[in-house]
Write a structure and sequence with these properties.
The protein has 127 residues and is an all-alpha fold.
Length: 127
């Protein structure tokens, strides 16, 4: 149901954004940013029970909480990167969108590095 509400919000805002883009592109960009913020807030609210389910599953499986934290931070970095890059593209700044995507990739790698280190240490432990 939450997805439907967010989809309707986006669909309703397409026409005003299109009309504003012709006369005042700055306001169209601001409206788009506001809708993106609302969608992001809705996604975070919908994801809260999922995070709790993941925590419960990881505890039952004996997986350290740090690994779950890494997974969640990489997912958050990917979503923020996507939203920011799309906003830059919508504003006509393709180069900025590319820069945001590059920064997001580097951030995801930096966040996931401890996980990679743990995997390498586990593999080396077998030898």
């Amino acid at each position: 149901m939450e997805l439907l509400k967010l989809a309707v919000l986006c669909a309703v805002c397409v026409l005003p954004v299109s009309l504003l883009r012709k006369k005042t592109p700055e306001q169209a960009l601001l409206l788009t940013a506001a809708v993106l913020a609302a969608v992001l807030a809705g996604c975070l609210a919908a994801a809260a029970p999922l995070v709790e389910t993941l925590r419960a599953l990881s505890e039952r499986a004996g997986i350290e909480g740090t690994y779950l934290g890494i997974l969640l931070r990489v997912t958050a970095a990917a979503l923020v990167t996507r939203f920011c890059a799309d906003l830059c593209k919508d504003g006509g700044a393709q180069a900025l969108a590319s820069a945001v995507e590059t920064a997001g990739s580097v951030a995801a790698f930096a966040i996931a590095l401890p996980l990679l280190q743990a995997v390498v240490e586990m593999i080396l432990g077998f030898f």
